[in-house]
Amino acid sequence: MARFVKTGGKTVKAISTASLPDIVFIVLFFFMAITTMRETDVMVTVRLPETTEGKVLEKKSLASFIFIGEPLENFQALYGAEPKIQLNDTYKEIADIQDFIAQEREQLNEADKTKMLVVLKIDKDARMGIVTDVKQALRRASALKIMYASTNVDRIVYGQ
Amino acid sequence: MARKRRSVPEINAGSMADIAFLLLIFFLAVTTLDTDTGLMRQLPAIPDPNIPQDVNKINDRNILEVKVNKDNMLLVEGQLTDFNRLREIAHNFILNPNDSPNMPEKHVVNIPFFGNVAVTKAVISLQNDIGTKYGVYIAVQNELIAARAKLRDDLSRQQFGMPYDKLDDDRRGAIDDFFEVPISEAEPKRIGE
Predict the structure, then answer these.
(1) Model-level pTM?
(2) Pairing label, strands A145-149, A44-45
(3) Complex ipTM
């Protein structure tokens, strides 16, 4: 007959933490792999407009970024509060866009030159005057593939 | 003289976890998971001044005029319109379900997978003032692109039984030919000064 009487004292065994470093390393490698270091410091305030039809930017290596917005507060004494264009790490003018595009295009390899994409990160309160000027400059530089950066939402209801 | 077996002291790996955690937290902090999303557009090339432009080839009934003035008011075909209605208006305009004479014409073309079908000649023309807010401009673009995307998706489900996003390039090209509907942008003017 089976005996259901417990023998011996109740001792809870310590959980082995020997595999903890392995687990942590796996997570670490995951984050190392997906990390993309922020290349440029954004010096303008950009609040992106909302859209429902936004597509995900797939090849980030083909993209060049143009930021337009009000300078950050600590730069406003120097540059004023009017929206400015930022290319790489400095404020630039419309006339500099052509050089910027040429330079960015130079960095791509031959096969990718036609696939170059310019991502416009523009503050939603900026005026179309400056945006149109930038677009014209891009046309002159024959960088015709552009993307208006936006935050994607499911639904937008417009106020009057 | 024969040595005794040399014992290699075992390295204490107890702090390994701590080091790994430290690195992990560093990478967690610098990781930017945000993916960029946005509206893809193709700008028109600068026209060659040596080549004469064929202007006004498009029949007036085929153009949906969308304007946003400096006060961010939306005018569709000259009528003040609510932003929430734009999608529906564009949808009806492109589809022209009753073949109304002041809505876009259709012409018969041969499209792979479809054969000879009547395809709309609709064009959407977008105009804005230099004082228009960028956010409003994007909202209008978004609504127009959404209207077109909806029609393409509906057609795709009806014809191929799957959403437009899942189609291969050939089928997608056929759908694009069916509802081409270019959204063209005019040079900015001062509207409603």
Answers:
(1) 0.77
(2) unpaired
(3) 0.75
